[in-house]
Amino acid sequence: MAFSVTIIIIILTAIVSFNAFNNPDFKFKMLFYPYKVKNNKEYYRFFSHMLIHGDYLHLFFNMFVLYSFGTIMEESLIFNYGTVGLVHYVILYVIGGFVAGIWPYQRNQDNIHYMSLGASGAVSAVLFASILWYPNGGIYLMFIPFEIPSWLFGFLYLGFEYYMSKKGNTSVAHDAHFGGALFGIAYVLLINFDKGVEFVSLIGSKIGFI
């Protein structure tokens, strides 16, 4: 594909993240900081944190997942909706990242010590949109030498992220991952409800209900 929103997002995120690695003041201004969002009305932080990462590994992992599933999802949306598909894809990623921050904001708006960064919430939105769109696909995870069905991975991932978000006391924004994933599912259902029907039918056949 000559024009790829996914590649543009990856390049932009890499450039901004590289800058943040070497500029602590810039990095601080870009962080998702619910306390400052609430008290200083710095609403831009709902979006800016998606462009920075903690380190090179964090950046690589998020962008690798985005490339792996985002290119597929972007091409599928364009195939089904033409140029409007690009709009759907941008909404999926950008608004997915915004929605991913709502739960962390509600939980930490009065916590002066809570800060987070990274595109994980937005990437989760794209990942779960892809899972709902192609539930028969497969996912490989590091250190697991076999393919996991996409639909099964989705259930396991949501259960894990929800459990960890309720447990708390980790350095990972599990609540953002969970929120982004739910948005990805909801957005696909909004633009193509048949995908949800197909998914339910597939799960029913897998567990013997249909």
Structural description of this entry:
The chain is mostly helical and 210 residues long. The protein has a single domain (5-207), classed as Rhomboid-like fold (Up-down Bundle). The protein has helices spanning 5-21, 24-30, 34-40, 45-48, 56-81, 84-100, 102-108, 120-133, 150-167, 174-191, 193-207; strands at 138-139, 148-149. A two-stranded antiparallel ribbon has the order 1-2. Helix 10 (174-191) packs across helix 11 (193-207). The chain is globular. The mean pLDDT is 90.
* Straight-line distance between termini: 38 Å
Shape: globular
Instruction: Return the CATH topology.
Output: Rhomboid-like fold
* Discrete helix count: 11
Order of H and E elements: HHHHHHHHEEHHH
The overall average pLDDT, rounded, is: 90
Largest sheet geometry: 2 strands, antiparallel
Beta strands, count = 2
Radius of gyration: 17 Å
Structural class: mainly alpha
Strand order of the largest sheet: 1-2
Taken together, the total number of domains comes to: 1
- The portion of residues forming beta strands comes to under 5%
Helix proportion range: over 70%
CATH architecture: Up-down Bundle
CATH superfamily: Rhomboid-like
| CATH level-1 class | Mainly Alpha
* Uncertain ranges: none
